[in-house]
Write a structure and sequence with these properties.
With 353 residues, the chain is α+β, with helices and mostly antiparallel strands. The chain folds into 2 domains: 179 residues, Porin; 120 residues, OmpA-like domain (60s Ribosomal Protein L30, Chain: A). It has 5 helices and 12 strands. The strands form 2 sheets. It has an 8-stranded antiparallel barrel. Strands 9-12-10-11 form a 4-stranded mixed sheet.
């Protein structure tokens, strides 16, 4: 008798779920938009108790069923998963007249799983049923939620309860209403809602994550919407040659010196070292002094004629320590008598798409 009644109740609940499912839920929210939201609700409950439960010691006082109401609070953890705590109160009746109608309570903690992340769900959990005494049961069931809007829904569900210590079987069914709290424009796990999916500067990063909101459309950007820069090396070189044993700068090098001055004026944070070199002819000490004088001559022109700050310039004479051509020929000696100013800086340039 008991199993027949349970099967009938469960069949009625399942049919009710699918009949509701035949109606199109035009306000069905995106499951991802529900993640992180808390919901609360109210419900009506019907419980069919185990036939072996007695109200009194009299065998004829077997419990039959109970009706009641309750409330619930839950949390959407994943698009497919919710946690829910439910409290219900109900009044029980007996199969025969003349016996008292005791009160009962149910406190259930369930996990709801939505296989398609939409309306139908499975559930399992534990239930502390207080029917004469407090006893822990395991739950297993299914339900269907019909959304009235993106925040609210009604549902129907049925579940079986198995009480471990006395091996009681109960079946509960309930119909209820739930409401989701929170701003629909919120973001959860960096997933924008339909309202906030905007990319104002068209760089491929939504505004809610874009920390550089006005990047040029031609620039390649990183994950937070800021322009990606790459290193580009800029090299400036000055080469001035001198006659043997001379410090005089020939007019033909004025343009090269002016170009270096222009570069330094455009990059006022940079400093430059002017290097002087000689050929291998003559004594080492003399050549080092001569190379220092040649380097200083270039520095003096940059300061006096091109207004370069003296603090940004330095002169170093290497003498014959860094020969470009070690041959003992007039051409090699002429090649070694020189001024060099090598400057290499790192310049950040925007990477283009």
């Amino acid at each position: 008798m008991k199993k027949k009644y349970l099967n009938k109740m469960f069949a009625i609940s399942i049919c009710s779920m699918f009949s509701i499912g035949s109606v199109t839920a035009t306000e069905q929210p995106n499951a991802e938009d529900l993640v992180g939201k808390i919901f609360g609700g109210l419900h009506a409950l019907h419980i069919k108790t185990d036939d072996d439960r007695l109200i009194t010691s009299d065998p004829l006082s077997a419990m039959d069923y109970g009706n009641g109401f309750g409330g619930e609070i839950g949390y959407r953890w994943l698009p497919s998963t919710e946690f829910r705590f439910t409290h219900s109160q109900f009044k029980l009746t007996s199969e025969n007249d003349g016996y008292p109608e005791p009160d009962g309570t149910s406190n259930a903690l369930d996990i709801l799983y939505f296989p398609t992340e939409k309306n139908f769900y499975l559930l399992t959990g534990v239930n502390n049923l207080d029917i004469g005494s407090s006893q822990i049961s395991a739950n297993l069931g299914a339900g269907y939620r019909y959304y009235l809007s993106e925040r609210s829904a009604i549902y129907i569900e049925g579940k079986a309860n198995y009480q471990f210590s006395e091996r009681y079987d109960e079946f509960t069914s309930q119909i209820g209403f739930v409401y989701f709290f929170g701003d629909n424009a919120d973001y959860k796990n960096n997933k924008p809602s339909k309202i906030a999916a905007i990319d104002s500067d068209k760089d491929g990063v939504f505004d809610n994550k874009d920390q550089c909101p006005r990047t040029p459309m031609v620039d390649k950007v990183n994950t937070i919407g800021c322009t990606i820069f790459a290193d580009r090396f800029i090299t400036q070189q000055l080469l001035v040659k001198f006659d043997h044993n001379k410090v005089i700068i020939k007019p033909q090098y004025n343009i090269e010196i002016a170009n270096i001055a222009d570069f330094l004026n455009e990059n006022k944070s940079l400093s430059m070292t002017i290097e002087g070199h000689t050929s291998s002819l003559g004594a080492d000490l003399y050549n080092k002094t001569l190379s220092q004088q040649r380097a200083q001559a270039i520095v003096d022109i940059l300061i006096k004629e091109h207004n370069i700050d003296s603090a940004r310039l330095s002169a170093v004479g290497y003498g014959e320590e860094q020969l470009k051509n070690s041959a003992n020929t007039n051409a090699a000696h002429a090649e070694n008598r020189r001024i060099e100013a090598k400057l290499e800086i790192t310049h950040k340039v925007a990477v283009k798409r």
